[in-house]
Amino acid sequence: MSLTALYLLVALGAGLVAMFLKLPPLVGFLAAGFGLHAAGVGELEGLHTLADLGVTLLLFGIGLKLDVRSLLRPDVWLSTFAHLAFSIVIGIGLLAGIAPLGFALVTDADLGEMALIAFVLSFSSTVFAIKVLDERHDNNTLYGRIAIGVLVMQDIVAVVFLTISKGHWPSPWVFALVLLLPGAWLAHRVWDRISSAELTALFGLAIALVPGYWLFDAVGLKGDLGALVVGVLLGSHAKAPALAKLLFSTKELLLIAFFLSIGLTGVPSLGDLALAGLLQILLPFQAAAYIAIFAFMGLRYRTATLASFTLTNYSEFGLIVIVIAAATGLASAEWQTVLAVATSLSFLVAALFNAYAPKLINLLNRKLPEQRPERLQEADRPINLGKAKALVVGMGRVGRTTYEELRDIQGYDVLAIEHDSLRADSLKAEGFNVVEADATDQDFWERVKKGAGMELVVLTMPFHGDNLLAMALLRKLGFTGTVAAIALRPEERDELKKRGAHAVLNLYASAGSDLAEKAIRVNQERLLSQAAAS
Predict the structure, then answer these.
(1) Which of 364, 366, 462, 474 has the most Cβ atoms closer than 10 angstroms to its Cβ?
(2) Strand (E) or helix (H) holding 288
(3) Is 151 exposed, middle or buried (0-12, 13-18, 19+ CB in 10 A)?
(4) How far apart are CA 214 and CA 175, in angstroms?
(5) How many CB atoms lie within 10 A of CB 338?
(6) Closest C-alpha among 145, 160, 132 to residue 79
């Protein structure tokens, strides 16, 4: 128990120091791992199990929110392979360039080993990238979806490599995994009957670990990939977003064990530190390559830069690849410590990149040629509000009813904003004027061209925090019209009014008063009918 307490205190202290230095806490957790190992503190029993569980839940959560169609986008799969090829070439060039400096690892490496190390350094950290997106609440933004798509494609490439490098193919039982499709149907039916939050969390954990991790691992595939796949299969369920939120805190705590475990891989020598530091030279080139590729794919400089900086780091998955490569004789085992340090340092560099992203985006917009709207992807073009007088943000049941009331009864020209691509496409097919976008993303409001007659904005998103954030961005944009919003509780209503909402509808209170009014009206009609009959 004393060892557990020591780990907790050191991790907490290092995380606080990182926070005070305006760095992500995960940088502090990595430093804590290196410090504990350097001090000769024994490894905490079960730490690696907790770390693996954290990564598994991370990928399961990604699967719950992943739109598989996004992987078929050229700005995802083509960008992944183009950047992979560039990273290998530039990586080999860097390693060959520093070979004369006397690093034995590099001097003794042949071209094949250099290519392997460059391949390992081409991967981006899923854990770091998702942490960045979670902190910004940008998972559903265009750049967030593209970044997640690239990460998934990289995982697929790495799984193929690991399968080949192990020298044997997966078990023939791998074809039995097709039974996950009817199994997912059954899981949906079971999930429909679960109403308890505790059972929901246990259900999600069991699905991620058993038909996810364990089955894939049993047939010779990467278990984390299985967690991602079953997450995708369950992602269409109505309760999937709630499950992802429910598992969020558990995943965050378990990932602390993951970062600590990276730091515990070994105490690097001065030579290891120097070589790991030199490997950071690759990061600016990789960032520039991502920006160029994404811009070529029709993304604005801002979108391309944010996606690039989210992906510009080295991957913890690369450490798994190098361990397997060392075990099969493809690379020296000494690379494990060097790459662990390089990965840790890359998180620090990535944190700096992301901290200065707004300034770099402004610089790119000034220095690079102006991008013509017709050359941009439709999802990244400026949004013209046109003649719309009312904007409805969020097209769930409340939003749809509001839209129809404003359009059909009040005679307004209405534009709707919906972040769910499937729902947006369905509404467009029904004749609604809908733009697919995330109204909680500042990027969306920067793309908006002010409509001359915009008078009213109605915020009907289901989460109170989203409505507050959208309202703050509206005010920042300089909107002076009327803002209305929905709330579920009195304190939410009060907060929205305090933030500047002109009208707030308490859904529960409204439903109660409407039901009472209808009950009285029906009762009066029945009494009149009975009186007339008598």
Answers:
(1) 474
(2) helix 282-296
(3) buried
(4) 15
(5) 25
(6) 145
pLDDT band at residue 249 using 50, 70 and 90 as cut-offs: confident
Burial of 222 (0-12, 13-18, 19+ CB in 10 A): buried
- The rounded distance, in Å, linking the Cα atoms of 391 and 348 is 41
Query: If residue 204 lies in a helix (H) or strand (E), which one and from where to where?
Result: helix 197-207
Angle at 117 between CA 114 and CA 120, to 5 degrees: 150
Query: Quick one: tokens of 434?
Result: 């809908």
Side chain identity at residue 416, one-letter code: A
Q: What angle do CA 313, 319, 320 make, to 5 degrees?
A: 130
Question: How large is the angle between the packed helices 74-98 and 142-165, nearest 10 degrees?
Answer: 60
| 377-410 tens-digit pLDDT | 877 777 777 788 888 998 888 888 889 988 888 8
- Residue recorded with tokens 């149907």: 185
- Measured distance CA(446)–CA(426) in Å, rounded: 26
Measured N-to-C along each axis, helices 25-38 and 240-263 cross at an angle, to the nearest 10 degrees, of 30
